[in-house]
Amino acid sequence: MLVERFDVFLFDLDGVVYLGDEPLPHARESLARLRSAGKAVLFLTNDPRPTRSEVARRLARLGIEARQQEIFASGWATARCLKQSDVRSAYVVGSPGLISEIREAGVEVIESGHPEAVVIGGDERTSYAHIERAVRLILGGARFVATNPDSSYPTPEGPIPGAGAVVAAIQAASNKRPAVTVGKPYPEMFDLALEEFEDKTGRIVMVGDNPSTDILGAHRVGITGILVSRTPVRFRSNQDFRIPDAVIPDLSFLFDPRVSVRAWKSPSFSWPDRVEAGVAAVILNRKNEVLLVRRVDRDLWSVPSGGIERGESIKEAVSRNVIEETGLKVAATRLIGVYSDPASQVFCYPAREAVQFITCCFLCVIEGEILQAVDTEASGAAFFNPEKLPAGLLPTHSKWLSDTLAGREPPFIR
Ligand SMILES: [Mg+2]
Predict the structure, then answer these.
(1) Which pLDDT band holds residue 142 (cuts at 50, 70, 90)?
(2) How far does the centroid of ligand 1 lie from the alpha carbon of residue 16, in Å?
(3) Active site residues
(4) How far is the CA of 47 from the centre of ligand 1 (A)?
(5) Ligand 1 centroid to 150 CA: how many Å?
(6) Between residues 195 and 247, which one has the greater pLDDT?
(7) What CATH number corresponds to the domain at position 283?
(8) In whole angstroms, what is the distance from residue 190 CA to residue 213 CA?
(9) Non-local CB neighbours of 14 within 8 Å, separated by 6+ positions
(10) Do 190 and 171 belong together in one domain?
């Protein structure tokens, strides 16, 4: 029985416990049963509009017991995150509940002047003027904070625009992305909810109806995710973090002995937000030394590499990236391999964006030019004896080099 496998249960609210003003079938009695079995029950909602106490009162009206400390709403969690980052003032696009949580955390909510942060919640009163002001303040240097990424919220009448829809409008107009997004599937709210629990992986489970927020968020923090759904969900890759560990039609199935749950085991890579194509070049000089560049951003050595521009062929991309990085004119002659191992090719960037690269690696010939950069280590580009490669060579690139030097026939795929 699912219930026996876990001690701490995190529940999403909309679509799991209630929909609008109605509790969902079997939610009330299942939650009461969990409590009487001594389980910890917490609620995590991305809805940034209500305060924690408003959520507690709403649950009480539906006959569901919940203390304020057991409720983690994205508005409250955002207020906590502002406080933790020492933000002193904010312009808030959102409900009175969100504004009240932020004030409660000791952050001044201001309508004019220059706030340190712009917080996006969004509710039915959000207007063009709010979005316009948020865009101006963000372009003026205020920190762009999103309460959650949900593009819509469910209602009995159908979906309504969520904070994610307002964030998308501001992002489109300002060409800036949020510096932080607090709600599920990001770890902030999970971390706040799990602060008091020692064992953060083994006996904790998230139960939600949205694979892209509830299940992905659970798996990112290393806990099991159970999906409440009456229809099966499918993802193309069996490594997808959004695949639930069990699917149940409603909460009464937590007590059904026929339902089994997979044990979630976190892979070694972060969940990529997107996948991008790239190229890499292995370039040897007459002495069979290999050209490496020092990555300024990471202080690591690598073979020349980069992205593919729109409308560009792969061979053009190889030549362009090499000339941009080293000043050397080369031509790609032989495909070494196509690589997209998530364990080594998912890179995390500031603002927590993770990108998985698919890289076509080519052996290249030098077309008569000379290396423009001075060939010392400090210059950022130099030829090295393959037997004496510098420390701090990207492990993936080391593999590409050894595949090249092993002289295997293309194409082989990793
Ligand atoms: Mg939901």
Answers:
(1) very high
(2) 6
(3) 12, 14
(4) 9
(5) 10
(6) 247
(7) 3.90.79.10
(8) 11
(9) 45, 47, 153, 154, 209
(10) no
Residues 228 and 327 in one domain: no
Residue 267 resides in a domain: no
Q: Give yes or no for a contact between 190 and 217, defined as CB atoms under 8 angstroms apart.
A: yes
373 band by pLDDT with thresholds 50, 70 and 90: low
Asked whether residue 260 is domain-assigned, the answer is no
Which protein residues have their CB within 5 A of the ion that is ligand 1?
12, 14-15, 209-210
Dist CA 118 CA 130 (whole Å): 11
- Residues 195, 165, single domain; the answer is no
Contact in structure between 59 and 65 (CB atoms under 8 Å): yes
Is 56 part of a structural domain of the chain?
no
Give 31-70 pLDDT, tens digit per residue: 999 999 999 999 999 999 999 999 999 999 999 999 999 9
Look at residue 241 and tell me whether its pLDDT is greater than 90: yes
Cα of 210 vs centre of ligand 1, distance in Å, is: 6
Q: Does residue 262 lie within any of the structural domains?
A: no
Number of domains in the chain: 3
Instruction: Note the pTM of the prediction, 2 decimals.
Output: 0.86
Same domain as 401, residue 336: yes
Q: Which structural domain range is residue 350 located in?
A: 274-406
Pairing of strands 290-295, 300-302: antiparallel
